[in-house]
From TrEMBL:
This is Helix-turn-helix domain-containing protein. It holds the Pfam family MLTR_LBD. It comes from the Bacteria. InterPro entries: Cro/C1-type_HTH, Lambda_DNA-bd_dom_sf, MLTR_LBD. PROSITE patterns: HTH_CROC1.
Length: 285
C-alpha cells in the first residue's frame, strides 16, 4: 500500500470534483475547493474520520468494496479507478469483475440525467449504479450472491413479480430469459453465466421451461407498468443504451403518460419508497 501517494491522489481528486456534479448545492459560503471531506464520507458511506486518515496517510488498508464506493463518489475514470486499486495495494478487478463496476462514463451520465430515473446494469441484469431519482422506484444495488441478478429474484421470489401487473408478467419473464440467452451466447464458456443458468434451472420450473424454448433478444426500448405501493401504477418508457462490448447497459425510465408524470412528482415530494425486493431493473425488457 502506497499511503502517501494514495493520500495525495484522493485529496486531489476530491478537490477536483464540483459539488454540483454529485448533486450537492454549492451555496454562497463555500470556501473549500471541490468536495468537503464530510461530503465524501456521506456519499461513500464511511466515517469522516476515516476520510481524514486516508488523506493524511494514516489509514489501514481500505477494502476493495470501499475503493469501489470511493471511485464512484469521486467520479474516477476507468484508468483512475485501476490506479486507486494499485495505490491501495489491491489488484484491479479482472475482466469478469470489472463488469460488476459501473463504467465511469455511465456514472457521469447518471448525474447528468438529474431528475430522470436511470440505472447502469450489467449484461446479467445486476444494477451496478443508480441515480437518486431512480430511488423513487426502489434501491437496487444492495443485493448479494445470486439475488443481485434481477432474473434470479424474479423466478425465486413471488414478491418481485407482484409489482408487475399479472397480464404483463409472462412478457417480462420471457424478455429476461431471452436476454440471458443472448448473454450466454456472447460469453460462451464463462463460468459466471453458466453457473447462474444452472442454479436457475435447479430453482425454477418456469425458468427451465422458458430456457428450453431458446428465445434470444437483447434489451431494447420497451414500455412497462410497475405497481408502486404508495402512488399506484407507473407506466414507464424504458430506453436501454448498450455499451460497445455489450457488457453494460444504461437504462433510462421516463413517464409514458401525464398521470405517471404526476405520480412521480408526488413521489419526489413524499420521498422514496422501496419496493419489497427491488423491481425496476426488469424495465429494459
Amino acid at each position: 500500500m502506497q499511503r502517501e501517494q494514495l493520500a495525495d491522489f484522493l485529496r486531489r481528486r476530491r478537490e477536483a470534483i464540483r459539488p454540483a456534479e454529485v448533486g450537492i448545492a454549492e451555496g454562497t459560503r463555500r470556501r473549500t475547493r471541490g468536495l468537503r471531506r464530510e461530503e465524501v464520507a456521506m456519499l461513500t458511506g464511511m466515517s469522516v474520520d476515516y476520510v481524514v486518515r486516508l488523506e493524511q496517510g494514516r489509514s489501514s488498508q481500505p477494502s476493495a468494496q470501499l475503493l469501489v464506493a470511493l471511485a464512484r463518489t469521486l467520479r474516477l475514470s476507468d484508468d483512475e479507478r485501476d490506479h486507486l486499486f494499485h495505490l491501495a495495494g489491491h489488484r484491479p478487478p479482472p475482466a469478469d469483475g470489472t463488469a460488476r463496476l459501473a463504467r465511469a462514463g455511465l456514472v457521469r451520465m447518471l448525474d447528468l440525467l438529474g431528475d430522470t430515473p436511470a440505472l447502469v446494469l450489467s449484461d446479467l441484469g445486476e444494477v451496478l449504479a443508480q441515480n437518486r431519482a431512480s430511488a423513487l422506484i426502489g434501491h437496487l444495488t444492495g443485493f448479494r450472491d445470486d439475488r443481485r441478478y434481477m432474473i434470479y429474484r424474479w423466478f425465486t421470489d413471488p414478491d418481485v413479480r407482484a409489482v408487475c401487473p399479472p397480464e404483463d408478467q409472462e412478457h417480462a419473464a420471457r424478455g429476461m430469459v431471452a436476454d440471458l440467452r443472448a448473454a450466454a451466447g456472447r460469453r460462451a464458456g464463462d463460468p459466471t453465466v453458466a453457473g447462474l443458468v444452472e442454479r436457475l434451472r435447479a430453482a425454477s420450473a418456469d425458468f427451465r421451461a422458458l430456457w428450453e424454448e431458446h428465445e434470444v433478444a437483447v434489451r431494447r426500448a420497451d414500455r412497462k407498468t410497475l405497481l408502486h405501493p404508495r402512488v399506484g401504477p407507473l407506466r414507464l418508457d424504458c430506453e436501454t443504451l448498450v455499451t460497445p462490448d455489450q457488457r453494460q447497459q444504461l437504462l433510462v425510465l421516463t413517464p409514458a403518460d401525464a398521470e405517471t408524470r404526476e405520480r412521480m412528482e408526488l413521489l419526489r415530494v413524499l420521498g422514496s419508497e422501496e419496493f419489497p425486493t427491488g423491481t425496476a431493473d426488469h424495465g429494459g425488457r
